[in-house]
Amino acid sequence: MYAPNEGLAIPYVSPMLAESLGGLPPLLLVAGDSERLRDEAIYLAHRSAEPAKYKGPSYNAGKFEKSPFQAPTNTTLEVYEEMPHVFQMFDHPCTTKSYERTVEFINKVTNAINEPLPPSSFSCINTKGEFGPLKEYHKEIQKWENIGIVPSIKRELKIKTTRRSPSELLVYTVLLFAVFAYLSPINL
């Protein structure tokens, strides 16, 4: 939508496809559980918090070892149940909770002179504002293997076709004309 397919593998366009997401400043990733980009946010969180485990696209093989960004990034992931994309724009208790959590995160990051930040965390927050672990279906994302591989639009279509003889085609054509003639009003 914002870039042609050829550009999607460029890390500046899709940061998730960089050779490593380690060594970044602390990240707060917020996603609605019902949004289309939820899986990408979850995968991005895992790639940044554990860069040695999630090394990225197969075409970047070998680049991680040379990358200066191998240290884990302190990452906070919050997935809000039943919330759509940009849910913070709507009047809902989860919106308030999300803003409160964002302010807390910013305060921790900017006021932590020599205080260590809490470890990376991945949470699912229900509509009552209660925190819990990610759901099992969220964990399936960790198994992604074809990250950054643009799917081919060329595929073999296997359509079973039956060849009709000319006489059969003539019969079908006459039948179609007969049906149309029967259904159309007669102008006399």
Indicate the low-confidence ranges by residue numbers. Answer: none
Strand content: 5-15%
The spatial strand order of the largest sheet comes to: 1-2-3-4
Largest sheet: 4 strands, mixed
Number of strands: 4
Distance between the termini: 56 Å
Derived from helix and strand composition plus strand pairing, the structural class reads alpha/beta
- How many helices? The count is 4
> Could you report the average pLDDT, rounded to the nearest whole number?
82
| Quaternary structure annotation | single chain
Task: Tell me the Rg in angstroms.
Answer: 27 Å
Overall 3D form: elongated
Number of domains: 1
Helix proportion: 25-40%
Secondary-structure element pattern, one letter each: EHEHEEHH
Transmembrane segments: 169-186
GO molecular function: hydrolase activity
Keywords: Hydrolase, Membrane, Transmembrane, Transmembrane helix
Overview of this protein structure:
The chain crosses the membrane at residues 169-186. GO terms for molecular function: hydrolase activity. Keywords: Hydrolase, Membrane, Transmembrane, Transmembrane helix. The chain has 188 residues and is an alpha/beta fold. The protein has one domain (5-143). The protein is built from 4 helices and 4 strands; from the N terminus they run βαβαββαα. The protein has helices at 38-49, 93-111, 136-139, 166-183, and strands at residues 27-32, 75-80, 121-125, 131-132. The protein has a 4-stranded mixed sheet with strand order 1-2-3-4, sandwiched between helices. β3 (121-125) and β4 (131-132) form a beta hairpin. The longest helix has 19 residues, at 93-111. The radius of gyration is 27 Å and the shape is elongated. The chain starts with 26 loop residues before the first strand and ends in a 5-residue tail after the last helix. The model has no long low-confidence stretch (mean pLDDT 82).
